Amino acid sequence: MEFFIVRPDYAQIAKYHQISISREDLVKLKTDKQKLQYLNKLTKEQSKHGIELMIEPYDKDGKVLFDDEHVKEVLVEFEVILERYNLVQHRENLLFMIVNLVQSLNSNFDYLQYESYEFQQRLKELAGFMYSLKNNPKDKKYTLTLKSKDRETSKAMDTFNITDQKLIEWMAKFVMDVIDGGEAPVYLFGIYENAVNRTKSSGPTILRELKDAASLTNKSTTQSRNKQTAGHFCLCLIPYLEGETSLKVAERWKTNDKQLRFLYEICMLFDLMDKQFDPDIKDVTPERHMRTLLNDTRNNL
Known about the structure:
The chain is elongated, with a radius of gyration of 26 Å. The chain has helices at 10-13, 23-28, 32-46, 68-84, 91-108, 111-135, 165-180, 186-189, 193-197, 204-215, 222-244, 257-269, 286-299, and strands spanning 4-6, 51-53, 58-60, 63-65, 144-149, 156-162. It has 301 residues and is mainly alpha-helical. Strand 3 and strand 4 form a beta hairpin.
């Protein structure tokens, strides 16, 4: 397992971030001076080898995030971001706070709910496909259209149409035979596997069920995840940026564009947001998105 190795200044971080102290030690630390001495001692003890922190790996869109390979990629990009915003001297403290915050927020986010959304969306699309095939007359022609988009920017790349009716019928029959045989794979539909395999019946009842399933609104968890994680993450990180770095603003509850861009890049790097912006669209910017996100989060506190 690849870890984030950090050597934080606990006395500095403690002003903005809760430091875990054992109950036994906490009882002994009765004055602020004793606490400061304890934190300085802890900093000195761990300065040589550092401490190992990790973010629990998880799968997203077929890629495992925060495994050994991904952690190395994150660390390389993290150094680039720090250079860009003149924050290299804050590397250890920022990395310590970021990794701890991300791990804490991720553990509070229900990834089963996220997977459930994906399964339901897959079921919805399959239902629409089957309804179209079962409900339309035989003399109607079909076209299957495949469109590809850039994974990061969502820009359209290629479009390919399949118009050969025999090829389309063969592909559709293959799908139908699997479903009619009750063999829809669990890895594609999870707990909804039985719902898929029940569609092997025919007649007006199943057509009505397919139509209803295809028209259901499946609420995405992406936006709620952004608000649950990115907004709270930024509010936890901003006090340190304000108190210790050059990324600060004059008035409370406001941010400058440079600070917003830094927060956006960190949120993207640590998978707290899925949003990408098209640079050709002037009115849609990371700064505006982050400002709205922070305002919404503060209003919901």
